[in-house]
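Researcher: Please predict.
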Amino acid sequence: MYKYIMSLFRQISRVNRLQLLSGCMRSISSSSEPLLDLSVDGQGIAVLTLQRPPVNSLNLELLQQISQSFDDLAAQNCKGMVVTSSLPTVFSAGLDIKELYKPDIKRLNLFWSNFHNVALKFFTSEFPTATAINGHTPAGAYALAMLSEYRVTAKGNFTIGFNDTALGIVPSTWIIELMRHTMNSRRAELAATASTMFSPSDALKEGLVDDIADDKAEAIEKCKQFIKKFNNIPKWTHSETLRKTRSIPLETLKKFLAENPNQMTESVMKKDTQDSLGVYIEMMNQRKRQKTT
């Protein structure tokens, strides 16, 4: 397992690797400080910028703030939302490992509840959503991107993909269905099982993203242009049609939550998964010590 995780880790550029190391070892924040920035332009399009440095790892508080943003924008009759990152080389490192390794069970259940709540809000949003990827986007971070309707990546030396199996985490069925909805079904199977990560250009070829831009600013602008396509389309027809086109992953998620809302907690708490997470964290600790000596 250690050798496998090391081989996956080497796929990440040195700069991103060091940032991911420091970010994954960051303590879980318990404050109410803003972990994102939410602004709305003169055309009614919002930009939600993740700003939990050093790597925007998705912890409970950040997920809660993303969920609240949906409610705030719906109340403002927002025309659409673009998700991006304030960091120069990382969109997000994915789910905060500190939430998953040797966790407080009550907090872990709350964490998963909020993650799934965010997923449902993306699926059922009454306004269009898009993601402007501007850096490394693994695992839960790419799940967040997949939930939006449209994805544009900037060019750069980083990778994109869903690689949870490398950490000993079995993806939920609804995430597998979302991958099958996003890219070729056979390619989704291969990518999910092998924890394959893609460069921006390969991500475009595989269908993980819809367009590619020279930089973050252009990626955001392309996302806004996508949202503007719905200016003359009634909101209810857009949202209802979207739910129908995504009915398989959406209904799979609803069934998953109805049958066993704590299934992911039980999965993460399995000894093999905890051991794998422990190996990964120890590897990062070793590299962090090497960096400081």
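Model: The longest helix spans residues 271-292.
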